Amino acid sequence: MQYHASHLMRAYARQPVSFVRGSGARLWDAQGVEYLDAIAGIAVTSLGHAHPEIAAAISEQAGLLLHTSNVFRIDWQERLGARLCALTGMQKAFFCNSGAEANEAALKLARLHGHRKQVAQPQILVMENGFHGRTLATLSATGNPAKQRGFEPLMPGFVRVPYSDLDAVRQAAARWPDIVAVLVEPVQGEGGIRVAAADYLRGLRALCDQHDWLLMVDEIQAGMGRTGAWFGHQHAGITPDVVTLAKALGNGFPIGACLARGQATDLFSPGQHGSTFGGNPLACRVACSVLDIMARENLPERAALLGTRLLDGLQRALGSHPDVVAIRGQGLMAGIELNRNCNELVGRALAEQHLLITVTRDNTIRLLPPLVCDEAQIDDIVARLAHLLSPTASDGPAAPSETTPQEAAA
Ligand SMILES: *Cc1c(COP(=O)(O)O)cnc(C)c1O
């Protein structure tokens, strides 16, 4: 490479690999070396890389109209809003460009809801180990002191309780009369792939009803089919008041959405919130294409089937590995918690197995493969991981056609 990272801020710890093209779950670097993508750009490219229908939607719309302004009506935005509301049971949408912005909109809705109830200092209940973004408000909502360090003073207005603990929520309700909303992930992704039990989400719904709090579900990582339902909270059969989306909504084209229903629907009045780029014709058309493809190909259902295959495979290959503490997941969100710091595995998986993985919370391998993987690719992910974690790991990538997960673990 002629260029180096010397003119980029050091916000990321980057691997020394750069990809030049992709197809489905496969990526190639400039030397033509092929890699298997088990993270999909962190739950973004769920339809895989270079999906021809997405490429066509982008190029056709780019030749027609990229951007006008939210000063005007935008047909694709109206269409996308209607489709997302139909899928979630929400009533209205606000569009932005990222997950953090979608959560910012939700946090602002919660404060408006509080002020409408005459609560002067509205508090929002958030969870330990939760992740909601990197802007100052969403960082303040995030339950990870390591990510917050250095950015104090954080934003006031958050009360934090342990995840999956309804008693803690009840105690907070008794102690903090100014709580007006709950912000929660159905599966904590950055938090180590922690899946909320259906009873927990139902309990939160009941407590929100009881106290007139908005139930705001952050579906930015778990939504859009990844957990085996269109949205993670749907496994619990509940309807939130606010749902936030981003990541896979544009399959790599930046777009975020904050959806609301009931008393949250019309909290914003004209001029109270906005985004220059948010909901432009290009982004909304791409997201409509994403929904077309996901619906036509039953990708949420496919994520459920492939997810079972992935978790079963991981369990067989690594369940009795001495370093493995737990294997968890839902659909195509899987975590393998190790008994040690395993950040070095990201680089080793790339170099030795040509496999893209991430590690979260320093000790949990996180897998977020594209929903369009085939069964062989899921088995291949398992085989390469088993090879990576085997005590006698050699340098070459595992040969999936000759190595079943069981053999690789042996
Ligand atoms: C990624 C993520 C965000 C932040 O999204 P950005 O697009 O990076 O701002 C928020 N919440 C959850 C659950 C996420 O996984």
Structure summarized in a few sentences:
The protein has about 400 residues and is of the alpha/beta class. It folds into two domains: about 5-50 and about 300-410, Aspartate Aminotransferase, domain 1, CATH 3.90.1150.10; about 65-295, 3-Layer(aba) Sandwich (Aspartate Aminotransferase, domain 2). The protein has helices spanning about 40-45, 50-60, 75-90, 100-115, 135-140, 145-150, 165-175, 200-210, 280-295, 300-320, 345-355, 375-390, 405-410; strands spanning about 20-25, 25-30, 35, 90-95, 125, 160, 180-185, 185-190, 195, 215-220, 240-245, 255-260, 325-330, 335-340, 355, 360, 365.
Shape: globular
Question: Over the alpha carbons, how many angstroms does the gyration radius reach?
Answer: 21 Å
Let me know the number of strands: 17
Q: What number of domains?
A: 2
CATH topology of the largest domain: Aspartate Aminotransferase, domain 2
**Quick one: biggest sheet?**
7 strands, mixed
Span of the ends, CA to CA: 39 Å
Q: Structural class from helices and strands?
A: alpha/beta
SSE arrangement, N to C = EEEHHHEHEHHEHEEEHEEEHHEEHEEEHH
User: Helix count?
Assistant: 13
Task: Provide the low-confidence segments as ranges.
Answer: 400-410
Question: Which ligands appear in the coordinates?
Answer: pyridoxal-5'-phosphate
Round the mean pLDDT to the nearest integer and report it. Answer: 95
CATH architecture of the largest domain: 3-Layer(aba) Sandwich
Strand content of the residues, in percent? 15-25%
Strand order of the largest sheet: 4-12-11-10-7-5-6
